[in-house]
Automatic annotation (TrEMBL):
<dbReference type="GO" id="GO:0003677">
    <property type="term" value="F:DNA binding"/>
</dbReference>
<keyword id="KW-0157">Chromophore</keyword>
<feature type="binding site">
    <location>
        <begin position="123"/>
        <end position="130"/>
    </location>
    <ligand>
        <name>FAD</name>
    </ligand>
</feature>
<feature type="domain" description="Cryptochrome/DNA photolyase FAD-binding">
    <location>
        <begin position="122"/>
        <end position="298"/>
    </location>
</feature>
<dbReference type="Pfam" id="PF03441">
    <property type="entry name" value="FAD_binding_7"/>
</dbReference>
<dbReference type="InterPro" id="IPR014133">
    <property type="entry name" value="Cry_DASH"/>
</dbReference>
<dbReference type="InterPro" id="IPR018394">
    <property type="entry name" value="DNA_photolyase_1_CS_C"/>
</dbReference>
<dbReference type="InterPro" id="IPR036134">
    <property type="entry name" value="Crypto/Photolyase_FAD-like_sf"/>
</dbReference>
<dbReference type="GO" id="GO:0000719">
    <property type="term" value="P:photoreactive repair"/>
</dbReference>
<dbReference type="GO" id="GO:0071949">
    <property type="term" value="F:FAD binding"/>
</dbReference>
<dbReference type="InterPro" id="IPR005101">
    <property type="entry name" value="Cryptochr/Photolyase_FAD-bd"/>
</dbReference>
<feature type="binding site">
    <location>
        <begin position="221"/>
        <end position="223"/>
    </location>
    <ligand>
        <name>FAD</name>
    </ligand>
</feature>
<comment type="function">
    <text>May have a photoreceptor function.</text>
</comment>
<dbReference type="GO" id="GO:0003904">
    <property type="term" value="F:deoxyribodipyrimidine photo-lyase activity"/>
</dbReference>
<keyword id="KW-0274">FAD</keyword>
<feature type="site" description="Electron transfer via tryptophanyl radical">
    <location>
        <position position="155"/>
    </location>
</feature>
<feature type="region of interest" description="Disordered">
    <location>
        <begin position="303"/>
        <end position="341"/>
    </location>
</feature>
Amino acid sequence: GSVPTSAGNFEWFPKPCDLPFATPKLAQDCAALISNGVDERRAMDFKGGESQALARVKYYLWESKLLQTYFETRNGMLGGDYSTKLAPWLALGCVSPRYVVSEIRKYESEIMENKSTYWVIFELIWRDFYKFFALKYGNKIFHLHGTCSNRSAAWREDDAALKAWKSGMTGYPLIDANMRELKNTGFMSNRGRQNVASWLALDAGVDWRHGADWFEHYLLDYDTASNWGNWCAAAGMTGGRINKFNIVKQTKDYDPQGDYIRHWVPELKDVPAAHIADPSQMPRDLRDKINLNYPNKIKLPQRSYTEFGSTPGPKRDGGGGGGRGGRTAGRGGSSAPKHRARVASIYESIYG
């Protein structure tokens, strides 16, 4: 017979609690999401399927021409156009990375080739890298000490810190904003992912696998290899350089006016930009004046990175530059960058 046009024709339709391995809390959250609808604060309205994926490629490349400024905007956190946002469709197989690359090559030949066009392809290659990374190391990407045999760390079980991190109540505005966005929409920017992973694993010292598991439960673009590989690297458990992020500095660099933070942490709407990175440093009279109702910062342990066998790398400047030389630009652009591409670390993989 014909396929029913609506679920109403079925005698039984699964509820969130019927999902395999669904915890009561996860089932409750799913039911609430279905009941309440999508969060109006979301970066964009992700809808599944090939047609929607192709429409996004068309919009990002050909209609808006946002592709040509991707390198400059990719570290954004607010809105729908600072990055390609193709990750959910790629993860679910709605669009092929080869198709995306073919469209970019076409764009380069017809409109412009620059660092931005190169960088999107480069990040798709990072996505492939983690497939091979997982293939090489197998189940080690799920192990506490990861894929390196010469590095270990004293990971902690801290229920209070983990709960605060999950709920966006750590007292660190940038962390809280990103974690609330994830829980309410299933998405988080690449810049946000790097910061929340660094905070949980390297600042709080909590078993990093709790973070990877949380991402697995909530990300629309969840991909086993990318998620666990990136978390393993963020925790310093791949043997590479340890990249510990200074959360206050990251806030000042990437959300200096606090627009993103206020978007997701309305308790901070009256906090001046000068104090948005660390409200705990506001003068007491100002805190009282705006009636600030925001948690104090979680107390973090003192950690010695000699336990990792490596000290944290140099301060990050916002993310690994580089471009590709050797080919002339297409119509409307200048020559491609002459310097060779580089990335600051294995965790510089961008999620689309």
